[in-house]
Design brief:
CATH class of the largest domain in chain A: Alpha Beta
Shape of chain A: globular
Largest sheet of chain B: 7 strands, mixed
Shape of chain B: elongated
Largest sheet of chain A: 6 strands, mixed
Oligomer: heterodimer
Number of helices of chain A: 6
Number of strands of chain A: 14
CATH class of the largest domain in chain B: Alpha Beta
Structural class of chain B: alpha+beta
Number of helices of chain B: 24
Strand content of chain A: 35-45%
Radius of gyration of chain A: 17 Å
Order of helices and strands of chain A: EEEEEHEEEHEEHEEEHEHH
Number of domains of chain A: 2
Radius of gyration of chain B: 38 Å
Strand order of the largest sheet of chain A: 11-12-13-10-4-14
Helix content of chain B: 10-25%
CATH superfamily of the largest domain in chain A: Probable tRNA modification gtpase trme, domain 1
Chain lengths: 212, 953
């Protein structure tokens, strides 16, 4: 059993916790209400890092799209972002990777596939724009929704992408940076009229107006 | 009261009154008043004291262009009264007064003026030398503006970022015209103005119906623009590279990134220089106009205007129309040359005189009471309480200077104008030398078209309006006076005489003149003094203003509060996954770079707690969180080659499933890091680095990989992977209960690495021995670390397993003689001064630092050694960095030291001159209290010298 790196950021008496993909995470607030802006921990959405000259072949073997550098593409529940010349970050159904990895020919170009322990945060709606104005040196509204954007938030290295609808973003950072970043984002979210919500609430379209 | 009847478009709200205190006296203001306007409306003309001589001062510009009126409250400092709104119930007082504004006894300094000339601190007070500290304390007490106390509340100001395609700075006629054209084209614009309302000079001058109608239309047109953002009451403090602009307001700081910038910041009216030109009552004509039109305040009852251009006559006309009494216009030139403007005033009963000489203001009870002058040698004077100066303008070019613009002298205008501008920066309006209202509007529109051409490749821009044929600024607006008190720089109490002295002393360059005299170095940064000083210098040397040039303006345009610059405080921290476990176990924390680590776990007193941890590791089993270690996956055909280049050893010789202790040196051969390289595959290594050097090691690896174009990927997993070290005689037995991995020495030897499953979790285990017992360093996913830690603690209860902290770890590794890079090594230590010489493999063709090390190995002047001492004194212990002294010469220093409970002695590491080690094995260490402790050299390790315990079967 694993625990979300952001678990210490959630007050034990204000949230209900549970398991998603074998990871303990805050699921819902004890007292739920509609939110105008949100911040959520989506760390149970596991990721894999594929590294090496063989990463293109691995992607095609798994019928996954092959993005160019700093691009993120989606396909049937997966998204794939190329974060380096021979480094790809993928998020989606991870159970398929082990079998597919074994299916690669031994003569194929080398490729290392590893589970990538990282924090993923969703933020959006009314609190997103003023929060990003304080944290980010980039004009994120000018990036296409298929861009993978490496930048700094409050001094922390993050990679992020825009969601198609509204001022909504997904932010990925290293696990050890997660608690500080999430705490900082939480303070700003509340200051700008948003609410920290649970994993399950994020996917509750009635609550978040069609976020997921 | 000096409140006028309602003025068209005034900025005050008549129905709302605000009460406040100033210097202990109660006053009433209207909502919308600034402190300056409110005080003048109440007839309070004495508003401040000057910096050096504590001379009485009043309003000058009413535009925040000067620092005559700086006030403070109990919680805020150096408030700029010209723009600071009155806060109901607040108590204000002037800064820089000793005993209050009226009775300021600092004015006695003026009697010392003869011995306080320009640069007096270079010439006086340093003899006799013994007396200088007294003068220094006195001068320091006398200098500065305002008093800071620890009682000031802590406030947090927002600091955010905005983006636009075009930033227009200044919302006067040129800026509004520019913004209107741009907004119609759909460009994303931000328009900023330091005043609380748009309009610039149209809000205090140009009072015709036609002018005001244009303003209303322009403002309304902008109100409909969806791509326009407006910031009023905010000033552009500086322009930085890549067209980044810092915008400052009461709310905080906004950094604006723009693709193009239009600077339409207007012009700053300049003062005339004459005796007593700083008296309360002497002000700029535009300052009076601002007070009248914006705040409906009459700043005087009987006014006289000193004229150097036609703007003076226009000001006189408008002020009379507002109901003020203008007694006379004293022209620096012949009024007959002013044409219809002069005739109109004369017809209205205003006396015209000129060309005037020997202008002088006279005080009555420290306020302006009279003005005198001569024309054709005939002296004359008038009683007045307002003397308005309108002799010329200086473009507000500071932001253009910061952007890198070059300037050219326009002789017809007698002004420096922007010539070559940086790419994407444009100028419009009075800052660009256009003064007629129609020209300013046309110039703004032309600038907009140039912006469109720049951003969108639109059609070529229209030409700019032609420059006027006559100067707006008088070339020599000063009057010498034998009794001086003719101020050039009001901030610094700098007089014309001071400039003359500086010139005669040889400071003949505008930059030298500035620094020697401090001209332009006060809070207003020369807005009213730089031009006149440059003119004086040009006149002194018989040169033109263009030949003299100007000093370089740098940020900030106005002073900015430190709190605004601070904004929110970002202090990134890394958190180990195990921090909640440490907290629950009673950790006493320490900072380790961006991390926090347990120093020890409290189970009573500190000494008792640490002893318990020590005994647990030596006798049973202990657990320590080492997640702060740097960790890198090095993958690819050139992985071994990269590591061979970056580290001193033959990393490529590491067998599959084994680790190797590695050392990194820089190009000078200096030790910078150590770690472990584990071989997981032919082309796959897992490398650890010291906690404090992780980021630098990662950078080094990537740089070398790029430099040599290696086919390798380096992934920094320092903050994704947790690490736990379990050590002690019972470690192996405990782990055997939760893994299928064979742990016998034959199957999993010392320095081996295995990828396996431990307690149901995928881990990498390394047999490494930092503390000298059987130990395993377990690396696993961050999100699973807490589960493993809890499992091990639970399983270890029967063995009385104990978590141990950094202090205990340091002692344990010291007993084994293991060094810590950065503590036992310094910025010049190389491997041949340490026991690590075997880690340097010169057979490799190339590695970082090889060339330097080939020389250094023959020139090792120091040596890192182990020592023991019987000195055990808790009150005066041997400590790190204590010096080793022999015959009054420093031989070395202690790098690590501690009392070993197991060995019952003090042990340590020290770096010593090689010669002294060769001479004697005993030495003396000087303690903090000056006493000496005896110590002697010993071989390391101190504990288990045969390393039997680390490799126990």
């Amino acid at each position: 059993m694993s625990a979300s790196p952001l678990l210490p950021c959630f007050a034990s008496d204000a949230f209900r916790f549970g398991e998603v993909a074998s990871m303990t995470v805050a699921l819902t607030r004890v007292e739920t209400s509609p939110v105008a802006g949100y911040l959520a921990d989506l760390s149970p959405l596991r990721k894999q890092l594929i590294v090496g000259r063989g990463c293109d072949l691995w992607l095609s073997s798994n019928a996954l799209p092959n993005p160019r550098l700093m691009q993120r593409l989606t396909a049937e529940g997966w998204w794939v972002a190329r974060i380096g010349a021979q480094q790809v970050l993928a998020s989606g159904d991870i159970d398929a990777d082990v079998a597919n990895r074994a299916a690669l020919d031994v003569a194929a170009p080398p490729c290392m596939v590893q589970n990538y322990d990282a924090v993923e945060i969703a933020l959006g709606d009314v609190s997103a724009a003023p929060l990003l104005a304080e944290l980010c040196v980039l004009d994120l509204t000018q990036f296409a929704t298929d861009a993978w954007i490496p930048t700094l938030f409050a001094g922390v290295e993050v990679g992020l992408y825009r969601e198609p609808a509204g001022p909504r973003y997904r932010v990925v950072c290293a696990s050890a940076d997660g608690p500080y970043l999430f705490t900082t984002l939480g303070e700003l979210t509340r200051e700008f009229g948003g609410t920290v919500i649970g994993f399950a609430e994020y996917f509750n379209t009635a609550l978040t107006g069609g976020v997921a | 009261m000096h409140r006028l009847p309602p003025q068209p478009h005034e900025w005050v709200t008549r129905g709302t009154r605000v009460h406040f205190e100033f210097e202990g006296e109660r006053f009433t203001a209207l909502a919308g008043d600034t402190l300056t306007s409110a005080l003048l409306a109440n007839g309070q003309r004495l508003l401040g004291r000057s910096f050096k001589y504590h001379r009485p001062r009043g309003v000058l510009s009413a535009a925040n262009h000067d620092a005559n009126v700086l006030l403070q409250t109990a919680t805020r400092l150096n408030l700029r009264a010209d723009v600071e709104p009155v806060v109901s119930g607040e108590a204000y007082r002037a800064v820089n007064t000793w005993g209050g504004l009226r009775r300021d006894w600092g004015r006695a300094l003026e009697w010392l003026a003869p011995i306080l000339p320009v640069g007096f601190y270079y010439k006086a007070f340093f003899r006799p030398r013994w007396l200088f500290p007294f003068w220094e304390r006195l001068i320091r007490r006398a200098s500065g503006l305002g008093v800071v106390t620890a009682d000031f509340p802590r406030t947090r100001r927002a600091a955010r970022r905005e983006f636009c395609e075009c930033l227009v700075i200044g919302a006067g006629p040129a800026g509004l015209a520019c913004a209107r054209v741009l907004s119609a084209s759909g460009i994303r614009i931000t328009l900023v103005d330091e005043n609380v309302r748009l309009g610039g000079s149209l809000t205090y001058a140009h009072s015709t119906d036609q002018d005001q109608q244009w303003l209303a239309q322009a403002t309304a047109a902008l109100g409909n623009a969806s791509t326009l953002k407006v910031h009023t009451g905010a000033f552009a403090a500086g322009i930085y590279s890549d067209r980044e602009v810092a915008l400052v307001s009461a709310e905080g700081l906004i950094t604006i990134n723009a693709s193009a910038i239009v600077v339409a910041t207007g012009a700053i009216e300049q003062p005339a220089i004459f005796r007593n030109n700083d008296l309360p009552g002497v002000m700029l004509a535009s300052g009076a106009q601002r007070l009248v039109r914006r705040y409906a305040v009459a700043p005087f009852l009987r006014g006289v205007i000193v004229a150097g251009n036609l703007d003076a006559y226009a000001a006189a006309r408008e002020l009379k129309a507002a109901g003020l009494t203008i007694e006379a216009v004293l022209d620096l030139d012949d009024p007959a040359t002013r044409g219809a403007s002069a005739n109109e005033l004369a017809a209205a009963g205003v006396r015209l005189a000129g060309p005037i000489k020997q202008l002088e203001a006279h005080a009555e009870r420290a306020m302006l009471g009279r003005v005198s002058w001569t024309v054709d040698g005939i002296a004359d004077s008038l009683a007045c309480d307002g003397l308005l100066m309108s002799v010329g303008w200086a473009g507000a070019t500071q932001l253009l200077h910061q952007a890198g613009a070059r300037f050219e002298f326009a002789p017809t205008l007698n002004q420096m104008l922007p010539g070559e501008l940086p790419t994407g920066v444009f100028a419009a309006g009075r800052v660009n030398g256009r003064y007629q209202l129609a020209d300013r509007i046309g110039d703004g529109e032309a600038a907009a078209r140039e912006v469109l051409s720049f951003l969108r490749g639109a059609a070529a821009a229209a030409p700019r309006p032609a420059l006027e044929a006559s100067a707006r600024s008088h070339p020599r607006p000063w009057f010498e006076h034998a009794r001086r008190k003719h101020f050039v720089d009001f901030d610094e109490d700098l007089q014309l005489h001071d400039l003359d002295v500086a010139c005669r002393e040889g400071f003949d360059n505008v930059e030298l003149l500035k620094r020697y005299t401090t001209n332009g170095m006060g809070p207003s940064q020369g807005k009213h003094s730089n031009l006149n000083a440059a003119r004086f210098l040009a006149d002194y040397h018989g040169q033109t203003l263009g030949q003299i040039g100007a000093t370089t303006a740098r940020p900030f345009y106005h002073p900015v509060e430190m709190g605004t610059l601070a904004g929110r405080r970002w202090r990134p921290q890394c958190a180990s996954a195990l921090n909640p476990e440490h907290e629950a176990a009673g950790a006493e924390w320490m900072e380790a770079g961006q991390w926090r680590r347990p120093r020890f776990y409290r189970r009573g007193g500190e000494a008792e707690s640490r002893l318990a941890e020590y005994r647990a590791v030596r006798e049973r089993v202990g657990l320590i969180d080492v997640s702060t270690l740097g960790k890198f996956e090095v993958v690819g055909p050139d992985a071994a080659r990269l590591l061979n280049l970056c580290y001193t050893g033959a990393v490529d010789k590491t067998a599959l499933g084994m680790t190797r202790y590695i050392l990194m040196c820089d190009h000078r051969g200096i030790i910078v890091d150590d770690g472990v390289a584990a071989r997981l595959g032919e082309d796959h290594f897992y490398v650890t680095a010291g906690s404090s050097h992780a980021a630098a090691s990662y950078r080094q690896l990537t740089q070398v990989a790029a430099l040599f174009k290696l086919d390798v990927e380096i992934i920094d997993v320092t903050r994704q992977v947790a690490a736990i070290n379990i050590a002690g005689p019972r470690a192996r037995a405990l782990l055997a209960g939760v893994t299928q991995q064979e742990l016998a020495e034959s199957a999993f030897p010392f320095l081996g690495i295995r990828e396996t499953v431990l307690s149901g979790l995928q881990v990498r285990m390394m047999r490494v021995g930092f503390v000298g017992e059987v130990g395993y360093e377990i690396h696993l996913a961050y999100s699973e670390a807490r589960q493993l830690w809890r499992d091990l603690v639970r399983l270890g209860q029967s063995d009385d397993l104990m978590p141990f902290g950094v202090e205990t770890q340091r002692l344990l590794r010291l007993e084994k003689g293991h060094l810590i890079v950065g503590q036992d090594t310094d910025g010049v230590m190389h491997p041949f001064e340490t026991p690590l010489t075997a880690l340097v493999n010169f057979k490799k063709p190339q590695f970082l630092g090889k060339a330097a090390l080939e020389t250094l190995r023959e020139h090792a002047e120091r040596v890192l050694i182990g020592f023991e001492s019987t000195h055990v004194d808790l009150a005066a212990p041997i400590e790190e960095c204590h010096l080793i002294i022999d015959d009054r010469a420093v031989q070395g220093r202690v790098t690590s030291v501690g009392y070993s409970p197991g060995l019952n002695k003090t042990i340590g590491l020290a770096v010593l001159d090689r010669d002294s080690v060769a001479r004697a094995k005993a030495f003396r260490i000087r303690l903090t209290n000056g006493a000496y402790a005896d110590a002697h050299l010993v071989n390391t390790p101190f504990y288990d010298p045969k390393n039997a315990r680390q490799v126990a079967a």
